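Q: What would this chain look like folded?
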Amino acid sequence: MKSPPTTILTVHTGKRYPDLWVRKLASMVARNLSDSHRFIVYTDRPNSDSLNATVRSHSAPHQLLEVRDLQAGDLKGFFGKLRLFDQALTGSDPFLFLDSTLVIRSSLEPLIAIGRGSGASVTGVRDWNYPILNSSVLWCEPDGHTQAVWESWQQGRYAGIAFPGDQNVIFRAFNDQAPAALAYWPDGLVSSYKGLRKLAGRDPEAARRQLEASCIFKFHGRPKPNEVLHPWRHPRATILRHPLRPRLWGYLADEIRSHWR
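A: My prediction, written as structure tokens:
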């Protein structure tokens, strides 16, 4: 019996990042996932002609593109991602969530296989800086544990806590209610761009090996991919961070240019 197409989700709200970045993400997914799949953009602008035209300007025969209303209500910024845990919106099919601020450099199939085989409700990144979940790349098997993330937030269970981002909420909900249902990707499969750059500053060969082992590298904080490609246009995010090490200003620019398109 043929399995249903894999579902890939992303969230695109506000105007912090250009619509073009969503098209780049869809294109990277299509090149790195040979099986039939759905690519769904959840947004606060589902009727935007610009967004719909931008997303659909990329086309692949094995990829079905959709733009849907996130229905985030008063959820702002990063917190809109919490809405994905409500099965009333996203349904009961498993999905892979990807941030738009990352670069996919090799096949996504190992990630999907790990997610499907983990037995966990959510599989994500072990954060590079803090002992929590990083929510940039998530495999979700919708069930009562994932629904509890949304319901805990909606019902105000954590109303008295000032969370810095959605991943802190997700981690707290699982830690409180179902810690065994949260799993992590193997170390190095999803890498931090800043972590790779830091390693390259002291051991370029080790950084190269880590990059080659990575399916994805994520741009958290600054710089973002466009800033690395044009460091002189964005000196605060690149040059001024390493003023005496010019080889780090455009670190991995060729790699980014090759894949982020």
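Residues 199 and 205 are 9 Å apart (CA to CA).
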